[in-house]
Structure formats: structure tokens, C-alpha cells
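Fig. S4 source data, part A: sequence.
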Amino acid sequence: MGHNILLMPIDLFEKRALGPLWQPVLAVCPDHLLDRTAKRAGDLNFVLPASPVSALSDDSINAHWGAIHERFSFGRPMLGGVPALTRRLDLAAVDLPHRLLMRRLGRPSEQPEPDAQPVALVRRSIHDRLFVAAAAELDRRGESFESPDLNLAEAVRETASRRQISTSLALPGVPPAYVRRAYSAQLRAQLRPMADLDVDDTWSPRIGERPDALLERAAMEFVLTRRAVANGGPGLMMPSVPPTAFTLLAQLERHFRDATQDRPRSVRKLLSRFDAAVRPLLTEAVVEAVRSASSLTIFSNFPLGLVTMPGDTAPLAARLPITYEPLLPLTRTVQRAATSPIVDWNNRISVLVAECIPASDPVGAESRRGWTFVQQRNANVEGLTLHLADTLSLEALRRAVREHNPDILIISAHGTIAGAAAALVIGGQPYVELGLEKSPPVILLSA
């Protein structure tokens, strides 16, 4: 059964926010909201009683999983070995996926030692995942571990050449230009770079009372760990991007914007300086994880894929596929990570193309011709509806979304910069927020 974590304010804790396909199980809330949360959880038929944050412990996790098993086991024996409550939040993204793997294998797993280093945890995680993959391959071939002809080390090496390990990274850091524009002098004075490890970054029921810097770190670790567990691979916090790296990135962008002719030597020189500025971020654990990865998810506002790893001759983006998830604004990152909608597309899909570019614009005219062709080509596809709408104002866009209630919204619009943020141009005006009453599950920007 799938698991979903949904974060919401108490005022939105209602059936509409949960969605029709959810089976609500457990609500966890701040202590002062327990009475309101418990009442709403009861009205929504939650399986377990609401729990205050202060009650979370190793015992409560075992009790909750025992109750969940009793409710949903359908006669199956309990797997057991419920992982203990994570203590080291700075190591959670690399440790928790491994502990869950060990639980599935029926092997005990312990919390990291106080002096544990990420590189050792990364190596352990990769080794055990390759071992499991090798065992699965042997099983498919009908070979036994007890066979005298079996070379297990060779089997693991063979599996490693076809490894499928998805690694996740969180890379904090904000461009200095953004800091100057968006933050007051008082806030700028409080900014501190983050390290990859922090001994004070541990779980506590009073976590909400920690300083802002540790709260921000915990938010990043939450989305990072959630993705690492979902992908089944290790995740790592990285140190903050130094301001120099953002400055060199801006110089690189200006070079490509302003250069009137190809100057490969200048580009190589800029990239070399860029690599030198970023090199301190590439800790031994990060290098180990990236070299063993088949794909990367990077939570950051910085294009780490431009960096050349030690020993490589081309940027990281040439080594493996990279998916970027922005960390700015951080609140939106957490909301997006913890509100993944459940959508049933088995029987129908409704698509709305919102055309925000006037037909008098060559791009708008070409876009309309293209989407009209797509609409005609798919007119007889069962279960698919494709609507085209001219939305040359924000209100027209909102009205079209209300009318069609699409599963997929495709916004065809020009983009621009509004202050320090990217924006869509609708009716000649830049908009960062669209203010939709109900956001479709999937929104694609053709900007």
C-alpha cells in the first residue's frame, strides 16, 4: 500500500483537502492543537487517534505500526523490526532508506553512532543495495547461494555495472544579488552558511522552538529524506554554495549572453574557476554517492550539473540524468513535497491549453496552429478531452480553469523577471502567483 504524508494548516484539515482516494490513518499535530485535531480526525474517520508531537517516541512508532498492521494486514504476519525514531536529522536521508531496506530483509538496523560519517553510511547503503540486486538476479536465473560454483563477489560486480541507484542531494545557498534585494539588513546579518553535518541538528519534540537556521535545515532534510526514501537510494545534505560560485555563475551567463563570437578558451577558463569555487562542496561522501548513482535529484537553486567531478573531464550533467527541485521559496518546496495529489486517470484525462499570448504575436499564432492540430488529431481518443482557450487576462485564465476543471493545465505564455522572481506574462502584466481556486494536479509551462 502506498504511503502519503500531507502537511496542512488546521483550518484546511477537512475532507476536500484529503481527497477521495485517501484512507486517513494518523494525524500528528502541535500539542496546543490536539483537541481541534482530534475532533476533526474523528469526523474524518481516521483509523488511529490523533497524536501530539510531544508523544512521538520509539514506543509510539511501534504502537502506531502495530495498530496499522492490525487494521490493514488482512491476515498477514507483521514484518516487525520497525525502525526507531530518527535522532540525527543531518544523516536521516542516507540512514533511513538503508534501515528500511534492512527491515525488508529481516535484518536488524541501528541508529548511526554519534561519530558516524556520511561516507561510511553511503558505502554501506550502496554495497547492500548492490548485494540485494545481485541476489535478485541470481534468483531470476535459478542459481542458489549455496552453489559451489557461485562467485558472489563477481555477481555483485556484474550488478554494479548495471546499477540503478537514484541519489538525492540538498544544496543550500542563495545568490548574493537576491539576498541584497529580498532581505533587510537585519535579516542579512543573521544569515549563516550551512555545513553538511550539524551536531545540534537532532530530533526533539520542541523542534518548532529552534532557531530559524535549524528550522530551515530541518525543512530541507524533510523533503530530501522523503525523496530518498521514495527513490530507495541515499540522500545527502551538502554545505552551502559560497557567494563566489554564484558570482562566477553570473559571469558565465553574461559571457554567453554578450559574446559576439565563439571563445572556447574563455569558457574553459571560467568553468575552471567555477569548479575551483565549488570543489569544497564535493565532500568524500558526495563524490562516492554520485559515482555510484544512475540518476540525481538535486534540491537547490544552483546548477550543480555544470560542475566537473574530480577525475572527470566533462560536467556532471554529462555523466547522468539530473532532476532539479528548487529550494526557493522553501515553504513552497515543503508544500509541494508533502501534497502530492492522488489522481485517477484510468478512465479519462482532461487537458486545458490556456493561450496567454495574443494571436498577433508570431509565437501566439504558431502556438494556436500547433495546438489546434493536436486537438484535431486526438479528437477520437476515448477518455481524452483537450480544450483550447484564449486567456489574455488573469481573470480569463481563472475562469477557464473553473469551467473545465482540467487534470492537466498547459499555460502558453511568455516569461519575464518580476523583481527577483520568475513570472508569467498575462495580458501584458507579470504574475508570480495565479490565485487559482483549485490548482490542477499537473501544470505545464510552455513559456
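Fig. S4 source data, part B ends here. The longest strand covers residues 349-355.
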